[in-house]
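// run 5 | inverse folding | seed 20
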């Protein structure tokens, strides 16, 4: 896997990805992973008696990425179809300068796809760990927000319209629970993909004779990768699952960013990204406070589906080793990792420092002059008069309140049927948003428990793949 523009751009890269992820998918890091596999292969083959024991040392010594010119390797790649072939040639030459005999055994019995795929799944494992780190930060921040604001009412909105009261604590708990799910899904996908690729020319390791399985086992151990049932050159389900999991991580981040950006609207003003000098400003309007973190997350969410689709399309591969679909992964998957890293990091920072205006949330509940409580009154009235009659009475009262610009409580109090059925004291209670939250408290508890279990599980040290 190699990074590709614009993520590698010094200008655009920081807008879309974290520094750690950009480093992980840099050209130099990609070359280092390929050489790591080559060095481990030589050691495994020497230990299994496939190549002379003395060849492994000189090969490993030459697997220093600083000795290779990235531009030269890149320029040579088009003629070969991948970067591994010119790298193996350069590695062989480097070994030969020190030990011509050892140079004969560079890349012994492997194919370029073995080296590229094994290097790529190492990148998948390490990249997923970076994203999980920031997902954990975001989950913890939303758990804290849910606890702090579990009793702070706000308008629940459906179809972008006020619907019924909820609490901001419930909203934050939903975010924490969702992020915990996608974090677990990404972890599972990355673990499933962290398997060795080693099959030789057509997946049989024929060039190693009977020693293929022994070399594979040693190589998997050296790279801390699981040993699959058999080589998987053209079966890309594991890779597609990772791409899909990354797309879902980005989409989940985008859902939250969309909500936060809507809550930051001037007319809503219920929550705000953390303030910082120069953050969110306009080049012309000094009063602006733009949702810039949300914009970066939503940019990722706009780009990700196409990249996921490219990876899924690439699953349709020909026979034992294919062309086109495999190569598309080299560009799509790094971009997904880069986009996910930026989106999740921005989300974590926003959640950690989110400014919540609970007074404005409460005030916005009154924006419709009590209409948000119409269902509460209808349900209570339905117990006395039946659901349909109660619905008709509240629908009529709501229309009258809107037409006359009056509060719904005042209008329903003037209805003899409603007043007689419910009474003044009951009507007053029905217009309290905190009295019509249903099972919100239980839902918050369950969501937080689930999120915290995910955090606890992720905090446990993981055993070796081998």
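// decoded
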């Amino acid at each position: 896997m190699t990074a590709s523009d614009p993520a590698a751009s010094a200008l655009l890269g920081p807008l879309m990805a974290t520094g750690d992820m950009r480093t992980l998918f840099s050209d130099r890091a990609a070359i280092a992973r390929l050489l790591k596999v080559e060095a481990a292969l030589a050691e495994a083959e020497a230990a299994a008696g496939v190549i002379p024991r003395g060849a492994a040392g000189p090969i490993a010594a030459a697997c220093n990425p600083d000795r290779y010119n990235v531009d030269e390797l890149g320029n040579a790649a088009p003629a070969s179809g991948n970067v591994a072939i010119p790298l193996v040639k350069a590695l062989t030459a480097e070994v030969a300068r020190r030990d011509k005999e050892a140079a004969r055994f560079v890349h012994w019995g492997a194919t370029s796809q073995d080296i590229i795929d094994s290097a790529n799944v190492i990148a998948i494992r390490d990249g997923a760990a970076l994203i999980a780190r920031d997902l954990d930060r975001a989950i913890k921040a939303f758990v804290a927000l849910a606890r702090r604001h579990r009793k702070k009412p706000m308008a629940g909105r459906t179809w972008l319209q006020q619907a019924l009261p909820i609490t901001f604590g419930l909203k934050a708990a939903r975010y924490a629970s969702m992020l915990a799910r996608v974090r677990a899904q990404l972890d599972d996908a990355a673990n499933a993909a962290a398997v060795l690729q080693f099959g030789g020319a057509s997946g049989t390791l024929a060039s190693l004779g009977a020693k293929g399985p022994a070399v594979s086992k040693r190589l998997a151990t050296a790279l801390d990768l699981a040993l699959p049932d058999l080589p998987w050159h053209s079966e890309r389900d594991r890779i597609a699952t990772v791409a899909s999991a990354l797309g879902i991580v980005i989409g989940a981040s985008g859902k939250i960013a969309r909500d936060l950006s809507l809550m930051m609207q001037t007319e809503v003003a219920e929550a705000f990204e953390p303030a910082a000098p120069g953050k969110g400003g306009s080049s012309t309007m000094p009063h602006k406070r733009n949702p810039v973190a949300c914009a970066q997350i939503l940019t990722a969410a706009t780009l990700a589906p196409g990249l996921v689709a490219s990876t899924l399309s690439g699953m349709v591969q020909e026979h034992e080793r294919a062309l086109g679909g495999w190569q598309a992964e080299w560009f799509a998957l790094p971009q997904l990792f880069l986009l996910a890293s930026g989106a999740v990091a921005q989300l974590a920072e926003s959640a950690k420092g989110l400014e919540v205006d609970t007074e404005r949330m409460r005030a916005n509940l009154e924006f419709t002059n009590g209409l948000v409580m119409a269902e509460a009154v209808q349900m209570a009235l339905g117990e006395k008069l039946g659901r349909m009659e109660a619905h008709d009475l509240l629908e009529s009262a709501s229309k009258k309140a809107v037409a006359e610009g009056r509060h719904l409580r005042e209008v329903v109090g003037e209805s003899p049927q409603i007043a007689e059925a419910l009474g003044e004291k009951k009507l007053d209670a029905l217009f309290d948003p905190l009295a019509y939250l249903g099972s919100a408290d239980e839902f918050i508890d369950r969501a937080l428990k689930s999120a915290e279990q995910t955090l606890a599980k992720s905090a446990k040290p993981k055993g070796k793949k081998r």
